[in-house]
Structure formats: structure tokens, C-alpha cells
Amino acid sequence: MAAMASIYRRVLPSPPAIDFASSQGKQLFMEATQGGTMEGFFKLISYFQTQSEPAYCGLATLAMVLNALSIDPGRKWKGPWRWFDESMLDCCEPLDKVKAKGISFGKVVCLAHCAGAKVEAFRTNQSNVDEFRKHVIACSTSDDCHVISSYNRATFKQACSGHFSPIGGYHAGTDMALILDVARFKYPPHWVPLNLLWEAMDTVDEASGSRRGFMLVSRLQRPPALLYTLSCKHDSWTNIAKYLVDDVPVLLSSTSVNNVKDVLSIVFNSLPLKFLEFIKWVAEVRRTEEGDQTLSPEEQERLSIKGEILKQVQDTDLYKHVTDFLFSEKSGCQGPLCLGQQTSLTDIAASVCCQGAWFLKGNSENPNGFCCGEAHVCCIKANGDVPVTVVSGTVTNGIGQQHVDMLVPSSSQSTSVSSSGLTNCIGKHPASNDVLTTLLLALPPQTWSGIKDGNLLQEINTIVCTDNLPTLLQEEIIHLRGQLYVLKRCKDDEEFRTGY
Length: 500
Prior knowledge:
disordered C terminus; globular; alpha+beta; 4-stranded antiparallel sheet
């Protein structure tokens, strides 16, 4: 049998690059350290990793930067550990797709935002080399901001083309930047002239005509959303983002509406398909060890906060209007959010548990390969506190089985009965009326400006106003609104891809 051809590393073309571990590279490092432009290096090098797949450079770079910034992913990686890994960065693009084709500049921005980071992204046609140098210096003299560069390797005479890596430092005397190449199986970390790095970024992807660029990633000064998140993982996200930001204002300005119910009817009855895949409520995923139903202090705290946010949603005037509309026999709503079967916890328990098992396996398999033999919903009390809803199931993937719990954020409000048959989900966990209320609050304020009736416009502006919302809910809304803006911007970049 013939041996498969293989490659053990590549020789770093030098010049233009200078190997970090060479005598000259070491000298540059020492001088830059003395000059104070290597401060960001030490956090990055502490979490330096090699991409696990040839096309995972964007995911590995982002995971490395998120861990260097000490951003908590809010869910487990393996065992009890919460930690960013490439396998967890799948909210904006299926991992199988990234593995096959790489990932776009815009989707990396989306991933960083979804992971709870602050991101500022610049195509080279939106900046210049002098501004880029200022950003590199600013992040190199601090450990709370890092630069991710998207560039063409060919400019450095290196093999392959599009690539992502973080910038680890800057040498002022030679005007050189240190690239911490995440493809460590190919090239070591290396210094390159900053002007040449700019040229490598200022290249056009032949398939899309889009330019590459750089992004600044730092910690948010406020906590990210805890209860809801927007997803661009499914193919329908582009239509949904466009509908919410562009189409809804046009529909409201071109249609006669007389009351709040008319407004909601226009928004809800034209929703794109698979809308439920766009906004998700966030649940805690865990394995159950020997039937232990106790909650850790951290789980109790997060669920308590989520429950408080949910209660604040349900205390808004907009929630009352949305609930009345959705559960009215005369609403005539035929949209995807009015299907009662899709909002019942008992109906989605098996699916939720399979997804939970997939997360706990590190997304190493296809989620469709998991089967939930039994699933049920129960309530437990955490040391006498407010009851917590738990979706439990025994999941198998043909090899073994595991018992999975999803801890669901619960509202303290009492369960109500409606004519639509959604009696077992209202008030117990985030249902359609909660999700829709939150998303409507997150829409840009100018969404409603086209309503012609002055009194109705004033009423709508009052019930969607976020200025007087409680702090937790206001932070949730601000985060989701930011996500929506990011997704809208990412829409134009969807076809721009870089991989190796």
C-alpha cells in the first residue's frame, strides 16, 4: 500500500518575515518589550493554540483571543470547565461548513459578538495604514484589546492565500508587527513589516470582490445577554435580518393601521419561514450525575438572573399586547410563531436533550445522530428558592447513552390559561410571547416612524421605549439590538470566505 503524501511544516520565507525564535526575532522581542509594545503578547501567548482543522484559522484565532480576554462562555466545554474552544463557535456558521470552506470575515465578527465580546471591524477600504498602525500600537500597549488580522499569505511569499491570525506585538524601531500564526503546523510566529501586512490585508478575494481587513476585539463594559441570543447559523437568517430591519418599516409605512393589534398583525403575519431558529432562549446544559438534582451556586445565580429578566419582559405593556394578539381566537395569525405545538416544552424536550448531548460531546458529531429515547419536563426547587424547570432525557448516539438536563429559565408569574392550548408553557419558560416581546423591543427605534396615524405612532413609541426599562432587561435589549445590527452588516459579507 502506498504511503499518503504528507508535509512536515514549511520553511518560513525570510525575508520578508523574521522567525520569532531566531536571533533577530528574539532581539526584536526584547526591544519591543522594553518599549512597552508587547503588553498584549503575554495574555495571548498564555492561550496560544493551533487550529485543529486546516480551515479553522478564524475559529482558533477567535477562541484564543476570547480566552485571553477572560470572557466567560457561560456554558461548559468539557467536564465542569467553561472555556472557549473552536467546537463551541458555531452560532453563526455550521462547523461542517467552516471545515469544508472556511469562514467569512463578517461571520468571525458575528461570532465574536455572539460570544460576548466588543468588536470593531474595518475593511481596508474603510481605513488606512496609519489608522491601522495606531490600532496595533494601542492594543500592543494594553492587554485588554487584541487585533485579529485577515490577510493574504501570498504577499509574504507563504503557501496558500486567505488566513486569520492575531497580532501579538509591535516593534516601533523597525515598524514590524508580530503575527502569532495559529497554523503552527505550517509556520511559526513571525515578525513582518507593518506596511507589508497592510498590503496583505488590502487584497481582494477573487470569489466575492470583497477586501480583507482587521478587527479589534475587547471585553464589553457591560454583561452580554443572558436570556436570549440571535443566531445566523441557519440559512434563513439573511432573510429574517433583512425583514426586521428593512421590510417592516416599509410595510408599516405603506399599510393603513388603526391600533396596536393591526401593527402586530402586519409584523407577525409576514414573518419569514424558520423564524423560530433566529432568536433563541439560552438554557443551561449539564449531565446528571447519579440522579443528583441539586444546583450549584453558579447555576442558581444565573437562573435567578434569567428568571428576573423574564419577569421584567412580562411586566412590560408590550408583552400584554403581544400576548393578547397571539392568544386571541380572532387574531387570524398564521405565522410560524403561532403554532402552539412548537412552544410546548413537552413537545420540544426530546429535541432539546439531543442538542444538549451534542453540545456536551463538543459538537464532534452530527446532532442528527443523537436520539432521545425518553424525555420529560419537571420542576425542582433549588434550596427552597423559586422552582426551576428541568427538561430531562436519556440520549443515545448508537454507541452509548447519557442522561442530559437542560435547566430552563423560569418566570415567577403564575401559569395562565388561553384558548390556544398553550397552558403548560406560559409563565413557566420563555414562550412565543416572551420571545416576540423582547425582539420587538430590540428593533431600531426608527422601525415605527412610518406609521401615519399620529396618536398610534405616539402609543407605539411609548410601549416600545427602552429608556425606562429595568437595568437587566435594558442590557438584554441593547445586546440583542447590537447583534441585529451586526447580522445586518454581515449579510453583505456572507460570500467572502477565507480558510487556510
